[in-house]
Amino acid sequence: MLLWFCKEDCGFVPLFIYAIFGSSRQLAVGPVALVSLLVSNVLSGIVDSSDTELYTQMAILLALMVGILECIMGLLRLGWLIRFISHSVISGFTTASAIVIALSQAKYFLGYDIERSSKIVPLVKSIIEGADGFLWPPFVMGSIILAILLIMKHLGKSRKYLRFLRAAGPLTGVVLGTVIVKIFRPSSISLVGDIPQGLPKFSIPKDFSYMTSLIPTALLITGVAILESVGIAKALAAKNGYELDSNQELFGLGVANIFGSFFSAYPSTGSFSRSAVNHESGAKTGLAGVVTGIIMGCALMFLTPLFEYIPQCALAAIVISAVMGLVDYEEAIFLWHVDKKDFLLWTITSTTTLFLGIEIGVLVGVGVSLAFVIHESANPHIAVLGRLPGTTVYRNIQQYPEAYTYNGIVIVRIDAPIYFANISYIKDRLREYETAVDRCSRRGPEVERIYFVILEMSPVTYIDSSAVQALKDLHQEYKMRDIQIAISNPNGEVLLTLSRSGVVEMIGKEWYFVRVHDAVQVCLQHVQSLKDTPKSAADPVLGEKPSFLQRLLKQRADDSSIAQLESGYLTSPISEGNDSQLEPLLSRKA
């Protein structure tokens, strides 16, 4: 294989660099099958594979370019893009990838070659078609070693005093397999074979003439490497209970690739299988990578003859044992019971990863996850509030059926920032709430329609110019129908935006309140005044019905007691100034 020499260097130098600059404690950096496949396919289409020197130089140059791109992304703090990879996507991705990797190791158990693929269908098809070449010795040895590994893992997890067995499992499998091969020398069991000896030498990529043609490939490999590495690192971080710094992760991978290119390595990234082995072996810090690098260096210098007799079925058993713990079917069951939408996301990601490949699976999962985020943002939760009996607390009437509302008033809480993508949806819901009146739980003066819409805006963290314009249009629409908007408890940033845009003056400072209850008290007084205004109270000279605002001003002095208005009964009128609870959020101009 032309990339063999680059591959062994890829698993040595980047380990040390990533341990210094990376943020994951379990991620094993080095050559991976998917990146190797991408490099091989792309370079074969650019240069003649018979030109070994040029082929290797281009692979090294590609590592340098990928490293620079990753460093730039890390320095520009573009790691936030990785936040859109939800836990459901990562869980589905790791589950499907674990199954694919386990199947790819089956050839060492079965004794015959199978097709190299990141998709499950070609793997299964290849396994079935090659069944005539099945050999019992590697299957029996691999199965025994796998059983030993699983037993040691179970004992290490279930009994604290046997915890060392979990970490000793892989070494036990390798030693046992090597001893069996040395004693019985079975010809049907494939071995690791001869490994080139010596450490990689320092060199700088020299031929930059193909850089332009390699840019698309570098971008593709960077994207795939980041998605895979960060996806694996986030999954392992979640399993080990710590937070992952995506920016540092990108920078660490970039520096590892840059330094790797100086030691004849092609692009490296986080290895799923080796990271799983790290996790199962109990690695807790980046020191695991340093130790692995030191052992790798010593092995390259002195121990390569000893590795010649390691059976590949033993190594396959170690990989399968490691990835079995990443098949997260329990998460799927949990999501089914807790959140069907996340379960759907998990299913889509795992299915596309299995049938369309790892990179496509991650991209589809992230795309669907973003679609869910956009849908939730464009269709935010909006609640109609009612008052809990015996309190001044207002809560969602769907969540608290005992909460009651008031005739002529609708109280709406918007549970999201208001911006161009969701303002249309919010306006539609407000119109619905205006007409959909549930009279069964309503109190207060009997009126036939809505006169006040109170917007509880404490959950609204941001409002943009499109939403401001929509609020102006809504205010004008309501004004034409004699409906007044009242605003309750907007935060400082939202209030400043409304003030700068003129919405505060348009609605009126007296209609901004600290609490929902304050707004309800004022609105109740006006609803009662409207109810008491005779229908024949038109001007005898002009013969015109007073406008809504004129009626409000005229009847302000005759407002009734708040407590009795809330119960629907009326006694003697009170003055507005007698209740300190009616103070608006903004003082009016003199």
Automatic annotation (TrEMBL):
Gene Ontology CC terms, in alphabetical order: membrane
Every STAS domain range: 399-523
Bilayer disposition of the protein: Multi-pass membrane protein
Region (Disordered): 571-590
Biased composition (Polar residues): 571-581
UniProt keyword annotations, A-Z: Membrane, Transmembrane, Transmembrane helix, Transport
Compartments reported by the entry: Membrane
Transmembrane segments: 12-34, 54-76, 88-110, 134-152, 164-184, 214-237, 249-266, 286-307, 314-337, 343-374
SUPFAM superfamilies reported for this sequence: SpoIIaa-like
Keyword Thylakoid among UniProt keywords: no
CDD domains: STAS_SulP_like_sulfate_transporter
Biological-process GO terms, alphabetical: transmembrane transport
Similarity comment text for this entry: Belongs to the SLC26A/SulP transporter (TC 2.A.53) family.
The protein's name in its UniProt record: SLC26A/SulP transporter
